Amino acid sequence: MDKEEFNLEEKYDELKQKYSLPELQKLSEDFDIEKTQEKESPFLLREIRRTINEKIGAYIHLFETLINPTSPPMFVFSLLRNINSDDKESIKEIYKTLSKTQIEIMKLDTIYKEESEAKFINETFKIWQTLKSKIYKIIENLESSYEEDDTIKNKSYFD
After folding, report:
1. Which of 21, 45, 51, 137 has minimal Cβ neighbours within 10 Å of its Cβ?
2. Where are the domains of the chain?
3. What pLDDT is stored for residue 92 in this prediction?
C-alpha cells in the first residue's frame, strides 16, 4: 500500500480553520515550523509546539546565563560587564514570561489534547510578537557594548 504523502500546508490549513491559528508563514518566520515537514505525525500541533519550544528553550538558556552565569563561555563575561540596568530588567521580565511558557509546555507534554496544543500555539505566538522586538533590542545592545569593549581593549593593549 502506498503511504499518503504528508502535506504540511494542507494539514495545517485544516487545523488553522478549526482553531483560528496564525498563518503558517508567520509561524515559520518566527519558529522554523517548516521543520515539522520532516516528521510525519498524526499530532501536527504537538510537533509545532515542540518546535516552538526549541526556540523558547534557547532563549531561556541564554537569559539564564546572563542572569546567573555559572561557567559561561568567556565572551559572556564581556557582555555582563557592559550590560545596562534597563537591559538587565528587560532580560528578567522576558525570562519570567518565557519560563511561564516552559511550565505550560511541561503540562502539555503530560496529557495530550489537540485543543490545548492549539491554544498554546495561539497564545505563544501572540506573546512572541511582543517579546521579539524587546529581545532584538537587548541583543543589539549586547552586540554594540561587546564591540565597544573589544575596541577599548584593543586600543589599550596596542598603545
Report:
1. 137
2. 14-158
3. 95
